[in-house]
Amino acid sequence: MAPTLYDEKPEPGDLIEIFRGNYQHWTLYIGDGFVIHLAPPSEVPGASSNSMMSVLSDKAKVKKEEIWDVVGHDQWCINNQLDQQYKVSTSKYSMAASQIAPHGPW
Protein backbone atom coordinates (compact mmCIF):
# COMPACT_ATOMS: atom_id res chain seq x y z
CA MET A 1 0.00 0.00 0.00
CA ALA A 2 1.30 3.46 -0.83
CA PRO A 3 2.01 5.83 2.05
CA THR A 4 -0.88 8.07 3.00
CA LEU A 5 -1.55 11.19 5.01
CA TYR A 6 -4.63 9.50 6.46
CA ASP A 7 -4.49 7.61 9.73
CA GLU A 8 -7.36 5.32 8.77
CA LYS A 9 -6.45 1.74 8.03
CA PRO A 10 -9.25 -0.06 6.19
CA GLU A 11 -10.15 -3.62 7.07
CA PRO A 12 -11.74 -6.18 4.73
CA GLY A 13 -15.43 -5.38 4.34
CA ASP A 14 -15.06 -1.62 4.96
CA LEU A 15 -16.84 0.76 2.61
CA ILE A 16 -14.54 3.46 1.28
CA GLU A 17 -16.09 6.78 0.25
CA ILE A 18 -13.98 8.82 -2.19
CA PHE A 19 -14.81 12.49 -2.64
CA ARG A 20 -14.62 13.46 -6.31
CA GLY A 21 -15.93 17.03 -6.07
CA ASN A 22 -19.43 16.82 -7.55
CA TYR A 23 -19.99 13.19 -6.58
CA GLN A 24 -18.74 10.42 -4.30
CA HIS A 25 -17.28 7.16 -5.56
CA TRP A 26 -17.68 4.06 -3.37
CA THR A 27 -15.49 0.97 -3.09
CA LEU A 28 -15.40 -2.15 -0.94
CA TYR A 29 -12.04 -2.87 0.67
CA ILE A 30 -11.16 -6.57 0.30
CA GLY A 31 -7.71 -6.59 1.91
CA ASP A 32 -4.05 -6.54 0.88
CA GLY A 33 -4.45 -3.01 -0.50
CA PHE A 34 -7.23 -3.91 -2.96
CA VAL A 35 -10.79 -2.69 -3.45
CA ILE A 36 -13.61 -3.74 -5.73
CA HIS A 37 -15.84 -1.11 -7.29
CA LEU A 38 -18.01 -0.27 -10.26
CA ALA A 39 -16.14 1.55 -12.99
CA PRO A 40 -16.89 2.42 -16.60
CA PRO A 41 -15.63 -0.06 -19.18
CA SER A 42 -12.27 0.93 -20.63
CA GLU A 43 -13.79 1.45 -24.08
CA VAL A 44 -15.75 4.53 -22.89
CA PRO A 45 -13.50 7.47 -23.91
CA GLY A 46 -12.29 9.58 -20.98
CA ALA A 47 -14.22 7.56 -18.41
CA SER A 48 -11.73 6.39 -15.81
CA SER A 49 -13.07 5.71 -12.32
CA ASN A 50 -11.68 9.04 -11.14
CA SER A 51 -13.26 11.23 -13.82
CA MET A 52 -16.66 12.91 -14.05
CA MET A 53 -17.21 10.97 -17.31
CA SER A 54 -17.58 7.79 -15.25
CA VAL A 55 -20.94 8.93 -13.85
CA LEU A 56 -22.19 9.78 -17.33
CA SER A 57 -21.53 6.29 -18.67
CA ASP A 58 -24.50 3.92 -18.96
CA LYS A 59 -22.26 0.85 -18.62
CA ALA A 60 -20.08 -0.37 -15.78
CA LYS A 61 -17.81 -3.24 -14.84
CA VAL A 62 -16.87 -4.64 -11.46
CA LYS A 63 -13.15 -4.06 -11.11
CA LYS A 64 -10.53 -5.10 -8.59
CA GLU A 65 -7.80 -2.48 -8.26
CA GLU A 66 -5.29 -1.22 -5.75
CA ILE A 67 -6.91 1.30 -3.44
CA TRP A 68 -4.39 4.03 -4.27
CA ASP A 69 -5.00 3.65 -8.01
CA VAL A 70 -8.70 4.30 -7.38
CA VAL A 71 -8.32 7.02 -4.73
CA GLY A 72 -5.58 8.93 -6.56
CA HIS A 73 -5.14 12.35 -4.93
CA ASP A 74 -8.76 12.62 -3.75
CA GLN A 75 -9.86 12.71 -0.12
CA TRP A 76 -11.42 9.51 1.20
CA CYS A 77 -12.76 7.97 4.38
CA ILE A 78 -14.00 4.70 5.75
CA ASN A 79 -17.78 5.10 5.87
CA ASN A 80 -19.53 2.25 7.65
CA GLN A 81 -22.11 4.54 9.29
CA LEU A 82 -25.08 2.46 8.14
CA ASP A 83 -23.68 -0.65 9.84
CA GLN A 84 -25.63 0.31 12.97
CA GLN A 85 -28.90 0.73 11.06
CA TYR A 86 -28.75 -2.29 8.76
CA LYS A 87 -27.67 -5.86 9.31
CA VAL A 88 -24.03 -6.13 8.29
CA SER A 89 -23.05 -8.96 5.99
CA THR A 90 -20.41 -11.17 7.48
CA SER A 91 -16.97 -10.93 5.98
CA LYS A 92 -17.69 -14.31 4.40
CA TYR A 93 -20.33 -12.69 2.18
CA SER A 94 -18.23 -9.61 1.48
CA MET A 95 -15.30 -11.75 0.47
CA ALA A 96 -17.56 -13.91 -1.70
CA ALA A 97 -18.56 -10.73 -3.54
CA SER A 98 -14.89 -10.05 -4.21
CA GLN A 99 -14.67 -13.31 -6.14
CA ILE A 100 -16.66 -11.63 -8.93
CA ALA A 101 -13.83 -9.21 -9.61
CA PRO A 102 -10.95 -11.59 -10.49
CA HIS A 103 -12.63 -12.41 -13.78
CA GLY A 104 -12.24 -8.87 -15.11
CA PRO A 105 -9.63 -7.43 -17.48
CA TRP A 106 -7.06 -5.79 -15.21
Verbal overview:
- With 106 residues, the chain is α+β, with helices and mostly antiparallel strands.
- The protein has one domain (15-103): endopeptidase fold (from Nostoc punctiforme) (Alpha-Beta Complex).
- 16% of the residues lie in helices and 27% in strands.
- It is built from three helices and five strands, in the order E-E-E-H-E-H-E-H.
- It has helices spanning 53-56, 67-71, 91-98; strands at residues 15-19, 24-31, 34-39, 61-66, 75-78.
- It is globular, with a radius of gyration of 14 Å.
- CATH structural fold name: endopeptidase fold (from Nostoc punctiforme)
Overall pLDDT score: 75
CATH homologous superfamily designation = endopeptidase domain like (from Nostoc punctiforme)
Number of helices: 3
Class computed from helices, strands and strand pairing: alpha+beta
Radius of gyration: 14 Å
- Name the CATH architecture: Alpha-Beta Complex
What is the strand content? 25-35%
